[in-house]
Write a structure and sequence with these properties.
19 helices, Rossmann fold, mainly alpha, Arc Repressor Mutant, subunit A, aa-tRNA-synth_I_CS, EC 6.1.1.17, aminoacyl-trna synthetase, tRNA binding, Rossmann-like_a/b/a_fold
Length: 478
């Protein structure tokens, strides 16, 4: 049988790496790591019309971003294995387990229409099975496909690791095309050969593949291959209760990188989307590998919840190393036009702001306050301060006078503010409001002492002096 647990993820490079594919990859990875086995990557690129190099790179990027480390040194590409598929198809032909079918597309279309008109399930009628083709002339100019001769009777049964026992009668299955006329294998044929050659012990995939499984089991038996454990995962639905769709949802893994989510957040969230370990909402990769069991997967579709994902990302951001967040933040800040040299303590700034924001994008937006040099404008202060303008003005004069002499840390800044408030008999708002408006150009900021610290003494004092000059002129004019 199988000497080692081996799992695989086998995406088709016809688009982005989908969230459902990513969750399946995470579960495949977890099973392999749980049993000290191997997790392999295969690219199923036989759809040559739709497969692209860009989509292949998107898959590789998504795997790398999620830190899904696969064990094969070289990724398996189906288009590099065409000769192997031909060999197996020829062997099945020689053993009478497959045959050439010369039915044209037009004939197949006509057959389907006739079956539909009779209320029958559309299926191939076996017209080119050897016993049905005796004396039949091979049509000129028709390139045949190769069909697998499905057993006529019996029942295909497997014990699904998620859904339990599933049975399908062979009378429900027609003869499957395994090789197209251009020599390219069909999905159901190639996947069986690949999984056999790669010694895959556990085939883990979406529940939309359940209908393919009985066909594949018959192919496994035909080529003398051991049957893997099959596990089918319910699909992921969007918040509207419908299957995730790129028209309605962000479904590409790398979109979540662009949106400012940490990879460990998406890894954790997708792992929890259809599987659980008690009430544990957050766990490490190592814990997932230790705890994961396919039997704990739900049989019902999981529902994606952006609010919960944002909460989880906030929790991971709070735990994240500040220096790492700085490196992730820098390109986002530069994209927004920030001059990174303006803030000397980026690590400190990130540590201050990350408690408030739930994505890297939101963190970058909030950080721009500390890089911006908005025009100094004191014109709004009279309206904001009203009858306290005189006291606030005097308090601000004292702040500008004494600020150069303190060690520019938030505790010292607040200490100076407290000293001035006591001396001048004003409340914190009457000092904080003009400090905010003149130093940042905004009426709302995080705590003003920390805000001033991270903007930096020189920039703050230069802006305060300019603002106080404007304010004095306004007052003289009034």
């Amino acid at each position: 049988m199988f000497t080692k647990v081996r799992t695989r993820i086998a995406p088709s490079p016809t688009g982005m790496m989908h969230l459902g594919t990513a969750r399946t990859a995470i579960y495949c990875w977890a099973v392999a790591r749980h049993f000290d086995g191997e997790f392999l990557l295969r690219i199923e690129d036989t759809d040559q019309e739709r497969s692209t190099a860009e989509a292949t790179q998107a898959i590789l990027d998504g795997m790398k971003w999620l830190n899904l480390d696969y064990d094969n040194k070289e990724v398996v590409y189906q288009m590099n294995r065409l000769e192997r598929y031909r060999q197996v198809a020829n062997d099945l032909l020689e053993r009478g387990l497959a045959y050439k079918d010369y039915t044209t597309k037009e004939e197949l279309d006509q057959l389907r229409e006739e079956q539909k008109a009779r209320g029958e399930k559309p299926r191939y009628d076996g017209r080119w099975r050897p016993e049905n083709a005796v004396g039949k002339e091979i049509p000129a100019g028709v390139t045949p496909v190769i069909r697998f001769r499905n057993p006529d009777d019996g029942i295909v049964t497997w014990n699904d690791a998620v859904y339990g026992p599933i049975s399908v009668s062979n009378t429900e299955l027609d003869d499957l095309v395994i090789m197209r006329g251009d020599g390219i294998p069909t999905y159901n044929f190639a996947v069986v050969i690949d999984d056999f050659d790669m010694q895959i012990s556990h085939v883990i995939r979406g529940a939309d593949h359940i209908n393919n499984t009985p066909r594949q089991i018959n192919l496994y038996k035909a080529i003398g291959a051991p049957l893997p454990t099959f596990a089918h995962l319910p699909l992921i639905h969007g918040e509207d209760g419908k299957k995730l769709s790129k028209r309605r949802n962000a479904v590409s893994v790398m979109q979540y990188d662009e949106m400012g989510f940490l990879p460990e957040t998406l890894f954790n969230y997708l792992a929890r989307l259809g599987w659980g370990h008690g009430d544990d909402e957050m766990f490490t990769r190592e814990q997932l590998a230790e705890w994961f069991d396919l039997s704990d997967c739900s049989r019902s579709p999981a529902q994606f919840n952006m609010k919960k994902l944002l909460w989880l990302n906030h929790e991971y951001m709070k735990k994240a190393d500040n220096a790492r967040l700085v490196e992730l933040l820098k390109p986002r800040l530069e994209k927004r036009g920030a001059d990174l040299s303006k803030v000397k303590d980026l690590c400190g700034l990130v540590g201050f702001l990350k408690e408030r924001e739930n994505t890297l994008e939101a963190l970058a937006d909030a950080s721009m306050l500390f890089f911006a040099d908005n025009p100094v404008d004191a014109s709004s202060l009279p309206g904001l301060l009203k009858d306290k303008e005189e006291a606030s003005f005097e308090a601000m004069k004292l702040f500008v006078e004494k600020a150069p002499s303190i060690d520019w840390k938030k505790d010292n800044i607040y200490g100076l503010m407290k000293e001035i408030m006591d001396e001048k008999g004003v409340k914190v708002l009457h000092l904080a409001i003009p400090l905010r408006v003149l130093a940042t150009g905004a009426e709302k900021t995080p705590s003003i002492d920390a805000t001033l610290q991270f903007i930096g003494r020189d920039r703050v004092l230069a802006r305060l002096k300019e603002g106080m000059d404007q304010w004095a002129q306004q007052r003289a004019g009034n």
